[in-house]
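Dear support,

I submitted the protein below through the web form. The confirmation email said the job was done, but the results page showed an empty box. After a refresh the structure appeared. I'm attaching both so you can tell me whether what I see now is the final result or a partial one.
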Amino acid sequence: MKIVVIGGGFAGLQLVQRLANKSNVEVWLLDKHNYHQFQPLFYQVATAGLDASNISFPFRKALQSHNNVFFRVALVKKIEVATRQVITDNGTYNYDMLVIATGADTNFFGNEQLQAAALPMKSTNEALQLRHKLIAHWEAALTVKENAAALAPYLNIVVVGGGPTGVELSGTLAEQRLGALAKDYPELPLHQMKIYLLEGSNRLLGGMSEVSSNRAKRYLEKLGVTVLNNTLVTDFDGTTVRLQNGNAIESKLVIWAAGIKGNIPAGIHRDVVARGNRIKVDRQHKVLGTENIYALGDVAYMETPLYPNGHPQVANVAISQAKNLANNIEYLIASKNDKIIDFEYEDKGSMATVGRHLAVVDVPKPKLHIGGWLAWFIWMGLHLVLILGVKNRIQVFINWVYKYFTYDQSLRLWFKDYNAKSTA
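What the results page shows now:
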């Protein structure tokens, strides 16, 4: 059986590794990048806490010991369901079974103005772009430091979206304000800098408990972040953020972490697309109305009694789905259809970090809500374990230790775009 997997995120890579070196199966992994990205730490790349290579791992290195797995860098153009083919910019791939694990992208909810002016952070490349933008932002602020009115918008940074990414990014920026930034830019009045975290619902971290949500808000406010719940952004023109309630914030920098939408390849019928641009699947991960197409992770929408509106779009769900599908595929190949089981997600907990010694962790069994030092250590330990590659884990740990003792980030490098002069 030839299985083609589109996307090497948490779900796609987990599935491929589970099927590696299995008899009677040939697995092809297609991804537009040649590396796996550890998404939970994008914000640390953006804020110069980690290098991009620390959270990225080459697919070929991850898969080199698997004799039945093949990898190609390919951008999927279309899925031809009738002929069982995946059309890409790198050729056409036939399949017996197709698994779509294409993840999700930033959702600007159709607002073209926000899409053009706000900065997303859903890939390693976007995290690096945000890092460069932040550095350029402060360099530009120096040019108007004598003009209070012109400087004011530079001293306001707006983060939109109160999920884990928004919370973690806001906390990091707040810590940098009187730490690394104060050292680099002593000419700027950074004590006047304000960080706004805007959330459309009535609380932060909507996927976590109310206890952790309130605790995270207290932590952020302790760091000086202005948290505005029930606040929607309607427009941003590069200098002014306009809110639905009629208020406005003068700012030169808006970071968008307010929502995601599934990345659905062309060729999937719109009848099976649910809200959030996710593909409807049954309890065995099969795309509704198809015989041999499956979907996993952020792009998949599965309704269950415990999750009638679909599962949370987080790494734990994606990995669990991949494990279940891998087991079912083995049973299918072995003609043991009676052993194929429906997916049931067991929530192992959720977490978010706000800053130094400040984090929140929810554990469902036993029901615990952990904060402060202990939650911070739990968060760091789990993320170190999940990062691919021993070398990457060591480098991340060293960077964290260095930052802890020096209150500094050493990766504030700004690589400008340029055109090399011809020597001809």
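Response: this is the final, complete result; the empty box was a page-load delay. The chain has two domains: 2-43+54-106+260-339, 112-258+350-406.
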